Amino acid sequence: MAKTEPAASHLRIARHGACDAAARADRSHLTTAADFQPPRLLRNRHVQSVLASSSLRRWLSMRGRDALERDATTHILDCGDGVRLQGFHTRQRALDAARGLVVLLHGWEGSARSTYVVSTGARLLDEGFDVFRLNLRDHGDTHHLNRDLFHSCRIEEVVGAVRAVQQQFGQGSPLAIAGFSLGGNFALRVALRAPAAGIALGYAAAVCPVVSPAAGLFRLEAGPWFYQSYFLRKWRGSLRRKQALFPDVDWFAPAELAGNLRELTRALVLRHTDYGSLDRYLDGYSIAGDILKDLRIPATILTAADDPLIPVDAFRALELPPQVELDVTAYGGHCGFIRDFSLRSFAEDYIVERVLRHLCPAAEAALQTGPTAALA
Is the overall model pTM greater than 0.70, yes or no? Predict the structure, then answer.
């Protein structure tokens, strides 16, 4: 993988495919990591990370949220093997016909209504894309849909969900997927499996994806206390909700629920998976090293060198094919990329530009020749 040495303001490792004329008509210049230069007061990694999901940002993004939620329809997807997942489909109104369909995936203990998902979805709507926001198992208000617990190795049901979304809402329309944090990890694993699963996926974007779960867990344990506290509080609440819905199941002992993140994760693995050990489970959803080398679909990974949760060294060690772009900003924290005091995220425009670049040619072909050409 070709590398560009960092300038004083940024680190960028990039791979670009050829930019076609139809995409250039929409964006003459693709934004890159070098373009993200937040004000000095917004450069702290923890400020960026906390603002990403803050109530203040949620309030400031209310207009986009209203546009996305107003026309959203709720759907329960059959994902195979009896698994049901929930999602929200919103049709764009900006154009006579949609440019494509984009599936959005939230992070761990987030939901389809997380601020970063809704803000990105609203931007995509403005650009003429239909949007489907998927809730992972046991996220949002979906604990009742499946008896077994969520864990991060449940990739096949997410592949099944994306396939169902394309069949129900995307026939003849170009398809992309974008995810954040753990959702970014899922998005890249879906892209890796898409051809074999019969999914006509045109592009994938991952923002601060979990690369090496083992390294990420160590990073959380060694980092500021409030990150582990935040995730434990939300996860324990989710597990207690599951216990209330299925009281006949011996989910966890009180002492296990009181444990730290590593202890509770180990209890989950030993009680509710077949992995047998914490290390095997963490390896089960890793995308580190050469795991993505056979990825055939164009993709972009956007991350920050100062991410307090995902070590940047794991990104530098990735073995990626030529059509996968890796862009690393100097600032941004974890899924923050807050560009200024309006609290708008650089990541939203970044994703939209690349979705336009990769899906617009196919969208033009679909509009001119019908659905068969787009899926051929």
Answer: yes
